[in-house]
Design goal:
The protein is of the alpha/beta class. It has helices at residues 2-11, 24-34, 68-73, 75-96, 134-153, 179-189, 208-221, 239-250, 281-284, 294-306, and strands spanning 18-21, 37-40, 58-61, 100-106, 117-118, 157-162, 164-166, 193-195, 202-203, 205-207, 227-230, 237-238, 257-259, 277-278. Strands 3-4-6-11 form a 4-stranded parallel beta sheet, sandwiched between helices. Strands 1-2 form a two-stranded parallel sheet. Helix 2 links the parallel strand 1 (18-21) and strand 2 (37-40).
């Protein structure tokens, strides 16, 4: 939203921006910052046309419950928000005859696989006995809904499978428990980083601005009914390696990386370890190239938090 608002100002694009969500305070703050109209409503309650009176030409569908702990404690909410919300958005896009819509999915749809590199046609296993799987399994179903609406209604919908996204623009929020934000807060406070796992999982990452450019590329150049990985292959590292980059490179060795696995680690809802790296060739074939590596991503986020 911020990028499109800035493009409006600098390039005179005259784009009408509409943000939809339940949180009135956040919505009004975004309206004041970006000049976007805020439509208040619950994405799970149809029809969305009651909240959004105009017929949008382009849609980015981003709504999801993404806190890992909620995936364990509130799996029903996770599934219904994803599936019901996505169906309602697709219905709105169909009735409005949208020119293009992008559904923001996740690399978690790949599940567990022994492959070292994963492209859009690969698929691993998801443990259906775990409530934590409510997130990746509902993402898979939502992708299927997108494919179904494309096949049955010729809806120009594309899917963006996001890696871990961070960098400049990520809010400095103490409640954000994603590892990149936790590591950055430790760096800002000059405190040691404490890992709650062994840190062996590979973190496939992408800078915020690189991701925005990727999403716009998919919106305007992507093939309808197709999925695209949005990841910087050169910014893939284990969680422990990421922590080491922050401690040794960003903080110049002033902090250390420690390990303390808590007894309630299952309740925290951490995703299963990932051993693969995402292939982004399909997106780069559209002309997109990532610009920022891991160290720079952390530096950009910290500079933004400091107001530099």
């Amino acid at each position: 939203m911020r990028v499109l608002s800035k493009a409006n100002l600098e390039r005179g694009l005259n784009i009408r921006l509409i943000a939809h969500g339940r949180n009135k305070s956040k919505g009004h703050a975004l309206s004041q910052e970006c000049g976007a109209e805020f439509a208040c409503g619950d994405i799970k309650v149809p029809p969305l046309s009651k909240d959004i009176e105009c017929k949008p030409d382009y849609i980015f569908h981003c709504a999801a419950i993404t806190k890992s702990a909620d995936m364990v404690a509130k799996p029903v909410d996770v599934v219904t928000t994803e599936v019901c919300g996505t169906k309602n958005v697709l219905e709105l896009a169909t009735s409005a005859k949208c020119k293009s819509i992008v559904y923001l999915s996740s690399m978690e749809v790949y599940g567990q696989t022994e492959l070292c590199q994963v492209s859009e046609k690969d698929l691993g296993n998801i443990d259906l006995s775990s409530p934590r799987s409510s997130y990746p399994e509902s993402k898979r179903l939502c992708e299927m809904l997108c494919k179904a609406y494309h096949a049955q209604h010729s809806l120009p919908v594309k899917v963006a499978r996001l890696a871990r996204v961070f960098g400049a623009g990520v809010p400095h929020d103490e409640s954000d428990m994603r590892v990149a934000s936790q590591f950055a807060r430790k760096a800002l406070a000059c405190e040691d980083i404490e890992l709650h796992t062994q840190g062996n999982s590979i973190a496939n990452c992408c800078d915020t601005m690189d991701t925005v450019r990727g999403l716009l590329t998919i919106l305007l150049k992507g093939k309808s009914g197709e999925a695209y990985n949005v990841a910087n292959p050169s910014a893939a590292a284990t969680v422990r390696q990421m922590a080491g980059i922050v401690a040794n490179e960003v903080c110049k060795g002033k902090i250390k990386v420690l390990t303390d696995v808590p007894e309630n680690v299952v309740q925290r809802g951490y995703a299963p370890d990932v051993g693969f790296r995402l292939n982004a060739d399909k997106l780069t074939a559209l002309g997109w190239l990532p610009r920022h590596g891991l160290e720079e991503m952390f530096r950009r986020m910290l500079a933004d938090w400091k107001g530099c």
